[in-house]
Target: Isocitrate dehydrogenase
Amino acid sequence: MAETRVTIIPGDGIGPDIVDATVRVLDALDCGLAYDYAIAGQTALDKGLDLVPQETLDMIGKNPVALKGPITTPVGKGFRSVNVTLRKYFDLFANVRPALSIPGVRSRYDNVDILTVRENIEGIYSGEGQMVSEDGERAELRSVITRKESRRLIRFAYEAARRLGRKKVTVVHKANIMKSTSGLFLDVARSVAKEYDDIEHEEMIVDNCAMQLVMNPHRFDVIVTTNLFGDILSDLCAGLVGGLGLAPGANVGEDKGIFEAVHGSAPDIAGKGVANPTALMLGAAMMLDYLDLNSEAERLRNALRTVVGEGDKVTPDLGGRSSTTEFTDEVIRKLAQ
Ligand code: NAD
Model:
């Protein structure tokens, strides 16, 4: 089997623990992956390097995929988020976040299955043009949306819907108020939707969408939206299926993907050996799908669903008493069955 090299960024806080656990599970799948380790975030700063060292960028550039632990964004002026930097540097224009119920996990609803496709490099979330006046009385932040990026992203969402056999794409916007930016995004969505007459096209204003997601999540299938709305709504969706410990994310470009957990570095439980690695392992399953290792991806998802669903060997955030290592051992046992 040809070897595929994966860049591994352990990250900060609980990052190294959940990354080690995920690499153990990938090794147990024995699907021809080899790893190149690179650092970023606080770990890099502590070594006197840049937040995202050039060697790390070069390493990610060389390999088709990267698996990234959560990174602490230092508080203070002059630090741009590592995630935002990586998305822009590698042109990772789509952020894909599935929210799928796991039977047995306590959550508000069962059978939720929503795929959020979020624009990843434009809009107000990109942090461009920030300014605070000298007297501190006025602040500014620019929001730029382009037809080109919107088209690329919305096409990506419709293509994903078609590939995955999904029935409906809901375009979420605020074009009634943000007529220029959100209006342009909606306009592009309407024209792209015409190319996909096998998929239902729906439009929804973001505030209504937030309410509808809470009231009746089963009415949603694929959501496509701009950067900040997608950031917020995908966390809402994660909350619907049991929380951030179960939510993976993929940052995807034309020829590269960086896969991660949606949650952060959890400094409150770092070093205690109790972090839940499920979200990152589900991110690794998305990475396997991206590499066309679909049966391995499915085996991993099934093992995770079984262990998390059974609930005897889960970490404290899911109501259990197991450590990260005990949970991982159990996933590996299930993979071997
Ligand atoms: P967080 O997601 O790190 O933690 C929120 C809460 O969820 C905490 O109580 C934490 O213990 C819990 N939690 C998170 N992941 C968990 C897991 N796998 N298992 C068990 N419990 C888990 O959010 P925060 O505290 O707001 O942020 C901490 C740091 O992470 C900040 O520096 C932030 O910038 C960074 N961050 C990074 C990413 C990323 O790299 N993708 C994403 C979000 C936040």
